[in-house]
Fold:
Amino acid sequence: MAAERLTGLAAVSQPDAQVLVLGSMPGAASLKQQQYYGHPRNLFWPILSELCGFSLEQSYPARLAALQQHRIALWDVLQHCERQGSLDSAIRNETPNDFNLFLQQHPKIRLIAFNGRKAEQSFRRLVLPSLPRDLPCELLCLPSTSPANASMSPASRLEIWFQLRDQLDNS
Structure:
């Protein structure tokens, strides 16, 4: 089976966003649902519900609204790629999203947090060289919330992701 050319999801953001959480490219379940972190075993929503204080029972639009209320934007590094299956290790022929435009439209972003190493590596390789050298935000790599990241316990991931709380508390 050949790799499929994929297109990512649109950014979920408000102009006052201060934290941008970036994945690499949505997995097959997320693309099928057209929802970020749609795989039922992905820990993104359980972690963010703890961090932001919303119920996992809320609808997807309500969860997105809760992130926006906490000035968290959600996007992916890649606009397009080729991939067979959902694993980041299978991603090939990457095309990044337009971060120059995004950061111009979101001047209050002060932290870019990566949901896993692949997102960070792709950003540093494909995006960072085209951004202004005086990028006014911090870069932080967090452990992937993907079910494929089985080497780290959910509790350990939650503890590390709570670093975002410092950014939210200073809002």
